[in-house]
Amino acid sequence: MNQVQAGGVVETLPGGVVPGGFWIRGVAALIDGCIAGVIGFIPNIALTMMAASLGPESALAGVLQILNLVLGIAIGFFYVGWFLKNKGATPGKMIFGLRVVDTETGTNIGYGKTFLRQYVGMFLNFLTLGIGLLMVAFRSDKRGLHDMVAGTRVLRVVR
Predict the structure, then answer these.
(1) pLDDT digits (tens, 9 = 90+) for 77-115
(2) Is 106 part of any domain?
């Protein structure tokens, strides 16, 4: 059994499981960003070309640009949300044996917690100029501000 100190409380995790660290989570997020970018590339190019063909003063071009932004956000949300709900990890996290779990139940999270983690928590990380993300590097439980907002933690299975 491994012991992890979380907010002054020492919890025991099953053997071979440790909190996911800063760098490994960062690389996993980079991989996921590339995958989501590839998924969103074709609709992005199509909408951008359609908007450009209409000209900058066209109201429809503006609508297409807004649609492009909304579609990009939706692709990212459903990409992350579907994988976290159904697999417990995105493909980038799976590569490194990482798993995002609910701190209360230890189970996969759903779309609600994904929204809190991915948008509310990450927005707060942005407002703190990344300090919320850096918390992962310095906290013993390796939870960032987005993890705390959503009530999640990232675990890594050590083989």
Answers:
(1) 999 999 999 999 999 999 999 999 999 999 999 999 999
(2) yes
Q: Is residue 100 part of a domain?
A: yes
Residue with tokens 């960062």: 26
In this prediction, residue 4 has a pLDDT band, given cuts at 50, 70 and 90, of very low
The boundaries of the domain holding residue 95 are 2-38+77-157
Q: How far is CA 66 from CA 12, 47, 48, 152, in A?
A: 47, 10, 10, 31
Closest CA to 100 of 112, 114, 119: 114
Question: Distance between CA 78 and CA 48 in Å, rounded?
Answer: 21
